[in-house]
Design brief:
The protein has 198 residues and is α/β, with parallel strands linked by helices. The chain contains six helices and nine strands.
Amino acid sequence: CEHEFEIDYPDFVDLEQKPEIEEDILSGDFMSFTCSGCGKKLKPEFPIHLIDLSRGIDYFLVPELDRGAFFQNKLDYKIGNPERVVIGFHELIEKLNIKRAGLDDTAVEILKFYLLHKAVSEDDTATPRIYFRESKEDILIFRIFGLSDDKVGTTRIPVSTYDKVKNNLLKGKDKRALSMINSPPYVSIRKLEWEKIL
C-alpha cells in the first residue's frame, strides 16, 4: 500500500531475561508488525544478537536477504564473534529447537547432509531444504521443503542414527569430508550451495 511507518526492534536480546521472545520466535510472532495503513501483517528480518549464557546460546541472526553478502564478506554491519551465525528465521528456529532437544548442531547438520543427499540422488532437479523440528521419545523429526510444489515433507530418524553420527564425529570419521559444513560460526549444510556459486 506504500504506507510508511516506523517500528522499533532490538539489536540484542538476552533470552534468559526475556524468555517470552524465544516463544515469539518459535511461534513465528517475533518481528511481526501490522501495517497501520492497510492492516497487512509484515515480517521483516533485521540483524539481531541473541544470547542465553545459562544454556549456551550465543546466536547472531543475519537476515535471509543478506545471505550473499555474508558469504562474500560484504555485510554492512558487524556481527562480532558469536558462537553461531544463523541466516534467516528458519535457521534461527531450528537452532533453538536443536538446543531445546539437547542435541549437537554439528551432528544434526551432518545427519541432514545424508538425508538431503539421498533425496537429491532420487531427484537431481530438486533443491530441498531440511530443518530439524523436534524430538519425540526416541525419534528425531525433520521437515523438508522443496521436494514438490507447495508440500512439506516430514521424515523421522531414530535417535540411534543421530548417536552414530555424533560418535563418528567424536572419533574423527567424516570430519575431513564435512569439515566445511561444521566450521563455526556458521554451521550449516547450506554452505555447500555457496561453495558451488563462489
